[in-house]
Amino acid sequence: MSLTYQIATIISNALENEWTVKQVEQLLEKPKQTKHGDMAFPCFTLAPKMRKAPQQIALELSKKLEDSLITSVRVAGGYVNLFLHQDLVTNQVLQAITTDLQQYGSKKKEHEKIIIDFSSPNIAKPFSMGHLRSTVIGNSLANITEKNGYEAVRINHLGDWGTQFGKLIVAYKLWGNQDKILAAPIAELLKIYVHFHDMAEKDDSLNDQARAAFKSLEEGDEEALNLWNWFKDASLKEFQQIYELLGVRFDSYAGEAFYNDKMTSVVDGLKEKGLLTESNGAFVVELEDMPPSLITKKDGATLYATRDLAAAIYRQQTYQATKTFYVVGNEQTLHFKQLFLVLEKMGYEWAKQLEHVPFGMMLKDGKKMSTRKGKIILLADVIADAIHTAKHNINEKNPTLEDKEEIAKQVGIGAVIFNDLKNDRMNDIEFSLEQMLHFEGETGPYVQYTNARICSLLQKGNFKAEEFNFSPLGDETWPIIQLLEDFPRVVEKAFAYADPSQIAKFCLLLSRQFNKYYANTKILAKDETTSSKLTLAFSVSIVLKECLSLLGMPAPQKM
Ligand code: ARG
């Protein structure tokens, strides 16, 4: 039973159960300043029903709060500030973590599914920085979803359909070279694709050929399909390397092409419901307060939006998910607003459960990091750079470390992931290898290093969780205990706001508090508190490891 729940029960009882434990729990706050106590109960929302001033309520309530968990109660305005019994709470928290281990903070399993649509790169194009952000945020959100008791369904909605494949087929037939494509599929496909655009500027007939090629693809022409399949497989192989490095997996790769044979029923459905309007031969759904959603083009071809409609309907039938997160950059905000509104107009109740999870851009030296045209920054190169720099840093810090290659990989990748997740996702983020790889500061390696130090400390102390035997620790451990105690709520909040940065910021705080304590305390010095101190270190490490795992980062034992 969590501490807030216990305190809420005491308060609810004192209020003669006028307010339920749950209601009280929701009102409980953590004061910003420690001098205001460990927990605060605001009485403002109680005032109307109780027909008393908040101060009056606080005063009366404060007199009734007697429990071994509470050492003192103070009233400040409409607040009741509570000071808790540190030893009792410390013992409780350490017991809970050493019992639950990685399950600490996990919610009961709900058997409800939540879909996370993330990563979703475009075939035959380089994996962009935007796709990296979607991959990292989406993967963490899926982990957080599971920690909150739901079943996560990870879907990679591949961009593997659309007129660009017509262009690619034409380009390949004109200028393609099979061997070159086999050697470096995405780079080579991008090259002929860019060349197509250059040539089409001078010769518009190429665009007609491309449209015809896409049409034949949509109609299932064998040659076109074979080429498309080949482009797709080759690209996926490259993407797979990135996913492997990042430790990301998917339950489904059903991308846009998957819905090709499900389009007619969507368009018919819209027609039957009287939602389609013709506009110059194209069909649209008119929407209030925003541009219409384009459903079919003049030539009957469907669009990205049409395929998203089909995907949403298909997924609802297949998974009956309670919620869907679309982790896609904020430049697609309008697209998702339109999509959700069209589904609502179609009468689908579940449209309300769809949520766009947008994020900002990745910047380098203040400018957008793009993967366009000739100047492509390949993500695989970016990651390789991070690993290389990590290895350099490790060599300086710990030259005799065993297994340096593997650890450099874990640190390099951890740095890239953490750099992405430590800020509110809507912020644009700066990509600076040098910064993100520091062992101090707000970095992934800092958190990993804190954990690795604890691991070797526990080894030196020959620590065994089952031998935990509590004796009171000093005041300086209280901030650490409070953070550990708060972890289950951080997990809930990260889910409620679809925001992994809640976890990232939390583990930075926890690392900082622990390192401060560690710098001033001889944890291994033998006395009656050794077991408690080691258990504290162990508990911090359990929670840090769990944070790293929720963020999708490795946790090396040594660094
Ligand atoms: N492939 C798209 C792009 O790169 C992202 C797809 C996101 N998911 C979705 N269901 N629309 O822009």
Explain what you see.
- Strand 2 (70-76) and strand 3 (79-84) form a beta hairpin.
- The protein has helices at 3-14, 21-27, 47-50, 54-64, 86-100, 129-147, 163-175, 178-183, 185-202, 205-218, 222-246, 263-272, 304-319, 333-345, 379-397, 404-421, 433-436, 444-460, 478-496, 501-520, 530-551, and strands spanning 39-42, 70-76, 79-84, 113-117, 151-155, 276-279, 282-285, 293-296, 323-327, 354-357, 362-364, 367-368, 429-430.
- It is built from 21 helices and 13 strands.
- 54% of the residues lie in helices and 10% in strands.
- The protein is α/β, with parallel strands linked by helices and 559 residues long.
- Helix 15 (379-397) packs across helix 16 (404-421).
- It has 3 domains: 3-84, Gyrase A, domain 2, CATH 3.30.1360; 113-259 and 319-362, Rossmann fold, CATH 3.40.50.620; 379-551, Orthogonal Bundle (Isoleucyl-tRNA Synthetase, Domain 1).
- Residues 117, 120, 122, 157, 159, 308, 311, 326, 328 line the site of arginine (ARG).
- Its main location: cytoplasm.
- GO terms for molecular function: arginine-tRNA ligase activity; ATP binding.
- A motif ('HIGH' region) lies at residues 121-131.
- Monomer.
